[in-house]
Amino acid sequence: MTETAGTAGTTAETATGTGGEVDGGAFIELDGVEKVFDVRKKTGFLKRERRQVRAVDGLSFTVSRGEVVGYIGPNGAGKSTTIKMLTGILTPSGGRLRVAGIDPSRERTRLAHRIGVVFGQRTTLWWDLPLIDSYRLMHRMYRIPDARYRENLDRCVELLQLQDLLDVPVRQLSLGQRMRGDIAAALLHDPEVLYLDEPTIGLDVVSKTKVRGFLRDLNAERGTTVLLTTHDLQDIEQLCSRVMVIDHGRLMYDGPLEGLHEAGESERTLVVDLARELPPIEAPEPARVVRVEGPRQWLAFPASASAAGLVAAVAARYPLVDLSVREPDIESVIAKMYAERAGA
């Protein structure tokens, strides 16, 4: 835990500066950003081979103030590397990166009071201290005015339901309780942007619901910009208006959540219950029957198409008893995008 505390102290030193304006109104701006790591691999006795791994490869995007953006991709895609460059932990190998007009790697301390960070697999709280003592230390480290600290603490404690946990040592908290404690710690100094790296990893359903509700309220009430990386796509569906998909350090998709279905050529499913068992329905193209079980049949059709015409065609020719339309699974859409990229 010593290392974590030291990192927090370094980040928070003299966090009193302000950033400049960002061109075009973008709060976060990346232009051709690259990150290359030198990796040494053992190839024999006393022999090592040196090679370069390109974790981020010419990444360009902007995020405006108040946006909640999902940043998703498979393991090793470059998500955490991007977050670490945005916070100043890592220095880009090339390209231009700015947060609130500030270069994070050159002015990390200056930027610290404007950002909040939560890494799902690593805490910024002091392991052996009660939760409230971690908050008091951050009060001093970030030089938060007393009234502002009390107001933010009271708000976080209430909305994240931390009242009964403040005097409990961090090591005795469950994962879900600690995660809520970490999110509160990241927000005590009123950051303008919040980076969340797997914030709901390992949490139960109740804890996830609490965290998601809090983040929605935070964005709605204070306009906090949120960049969220996660493997739990329900986080994306419930919180984000925009999604960026990254793979092998490159941006594969950037747009609204609904557009993912079109980009991934996803399909909706019309489930039809007929009055009796019949051969597969002769549906108008591009719809097609993908499954038949007795009187029930499943017809797939493009997610971008309306179901009305297909329903009318089926109802006009077949003894229809009931039907339902199933939306495409976002996980399968993204998996298909990855598969197509890998086969290209």
Automatic annotation (TrEMBL):
Positions of the ABC transporter domain: 28-273
Composition bias type Low complexity, residue spans: 1-16
Keyword Nucleotide-binding assigned: yes
Gene3D superfamilies: P-loop containing nucleotide triphosphate hydrolases
Record bears the keyword ATP-binding: yes
Pfam family membership, one: ABC_tran
Gene Ontology molecular function terms on file: ATP binding
Topological category with respect to the lipid bilayer: Peripheral membrane protein
SMART domains reported in the protein's UniProt record: AAA
Keywords in alphabetical order: Antibiotic resistance, ATP-binding, Nucleotide-binding, Transport
Region of interest (Disordered), ranges: 1-20
Localisation per UniProt entry: Cell membrane
Principal location class: membrane
Highest taxon listed in the record's lineage: Bacteria
This protein's name: ATP-binding cassette domain-containing protein
Source organism per UniProt: Streptomyces salinarius
